[in-house]
């Protein structure tokens, strides 16, 4: 059964940037690219760094701790096919962001 949880409004998110949220015991990183929002595990798959505070360029975020780069649409590491962060489905309903946990 799906469990979509409201996280924030779209307006809280800066276009071209990420932001961290703690939702139901889960750290989430939300990234806004124009009208789209993507959700990823907020803990970097390298060593648990705050990936949501990383720098976003197009659809790639760079972790602030050691520079790993992940595609926010897929969670895929940009250099290693074996590394992928968890991502979560997102729905935007009336300007509100819901994430399926
Ligand atoms: S914790 Fe993210 S690159 Fe090391």
In summary, what is this structure?
The protein is mainly beta and 101 residues long. It contains no helices and 10 strands.
Description:
It is a single chain. This protein has 101 residues and is mostly beta strands. It has no helices and 10 strands. The chain has one domain: Rieske Iron-sulfur Protein (3-layer Sandwich), CATH 2.102.10. It has strands at residues 4-9, 17-23, 26-33, 36-41, 55-57, 60-62, 69-71, 87-88, 90-93, 96-100. The chain has a 4-stranded antiparallel sheet, with no helix packed on it. Strands 1-10-9 form a 3-stranded antiparallel sheet, with no helix packed on it. The chain has a 3-stranded antiparallel sheet with strand order 5-6-7, with no helix packed on it. A hairpin with a 2-residue loop joins strand 3 and strand 4. The protein is globular, with a radius of gyration of 13 Å. The model has no long low-confidence stretch (mean pLDDT 97). The structure holds FE2/S2 (inorganic) cluster.
CATH architecture call: 3-layer Sandwich
Distance between the termini: 10 Å
Q: How would you classify the helix and strand content by structural class?
A: mainly beta
CATH homologous superfamily descriptor = Rieske [2Fe-2S] iron-sulphur domain
Number of helices: 0
Parts with pLDDT < 50 across at least 5 consecutive residues: none
- Rough shape? globular
Q: What is the residue-averaged pLDDT?
A: 97
């Amino acid at each position: 059964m799906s469990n979509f949880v409201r996280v924030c409004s779209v307006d809280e998110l800066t276009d071209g940037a990420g932001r961290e949220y703690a939702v139901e015991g889960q750290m989430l990183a939300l990234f806004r690219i124009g009208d789209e929002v993507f959700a990823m595990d907020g803990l970097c798959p390298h060593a648990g760094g705050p990936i949501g505070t990383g720098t976003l360029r197009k659809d790639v975020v760079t972790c602030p701790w050691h520079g790993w780069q992940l595609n926010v649409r897929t969670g895929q590491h940009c250099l290693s096919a074996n590394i992928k962060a968890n991502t979560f489905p997102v729905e935007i309903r009336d300007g509100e962001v819901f994430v399926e946990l």
